[in-house]
Amino acid sequence: xxxxxxxxxxxxxxxxxxxxxxxxxxxxxxxxxxxxxxxxxxxxxxxxxxxxxxxxxxxxxxxxxxxxxxxxxxxxxxxxxxxxxxxxxxxxxxxxxxxxxxxxxxxxxxxxxxxxxxxxxxxxxxxxxxxxxxxxxxxxxxxxxxxxxxxxxxxxxxxxxxxxxxxxxxxxxxxxxxxxxxxxxxxxxxxxxxxxxxxxxxxxxxxxxxxxxxxxxxxxxxxxxxxxxxxxxxxxxxxxxxxxxxxxxxxxxxxxxxxxxxxxxxxxxxxxxxxxxxxxxxxxxxxxxxxxxxxxxxxxxxxxxxxxxxxxxxx
Length: 315
Fold this sequence. Notes:
Blueprint: H1 3-9, H2 16-54, E1 58-64, E2 70-76, H3 80-90, H4 99-106, H5 110-139, H6 150-165, H7 168-179, H8 183-206, H9 211-219, H10 224-258, H11 267-275, H12 279-308, H13 310-314
Antiparallel strand pairs: 1-2
Helix pairs in contact: 5-8, 5-10, 6-8, 7-8, 8-10, 9-10, 10-12, 11-12
């Protein structure tokens, strides 16, 4: 049978029967989509209700009425009023006629806080440097398309998982025990966690590269390191810069907390303020951290745009 005969014997691509078949298939797909959406919604609300129940967001309890009788009631968000009370206590008393004195009383330890803020930023900077170096080097053997073999891939991925699974506070407790109280423990704790997180992000970027430049370097006789240097790094560098600057901002926030367990930074002041119930000091510290993060975020954005050339194109 010739190709022409085969083409002639094929069923028509249009007509009432084809349109009816298309409508049936479309209706079937719509029904399947609705069923899948309904199942997903039911599962979502079931998990939400279970989580809310386990987290005491709402619960059923017996309450005593004024006449002495008891009845069961649903209590939703039992701790929300206390949250509002806590936030109200953190607000300082500011009067327009004595604004300068009130601000001076609010930030009465500004010199100590400024010194600890600089220490916090330096901890975050050193931790980011160590995290970037470690995450960058391990990300290549942790990438499926770049790892030399399965053993290296498995080992690199398990190390990154271990490093980022343990929270910074736990790492800080371990390193405070090893290096005593001080910024060194904070640098090691935040840096190790950042290494695991950045290594994961960098490896995902590596797995999305175009493999043709790498094959070209390999065909020219380049080693594995030559392929990474000349074919991979130029492709992933913009994303690496973005993730690095984002991680530095995250590390600043983390470094301001790990001092709570003695790893340096503003965290020790937060612990002192909470221990003595100095709520206005807490709001001052939170405001300092917020302003610092906003400034770092703005500077990181400008720096990233300048590195990748986006600012020059906008100009």
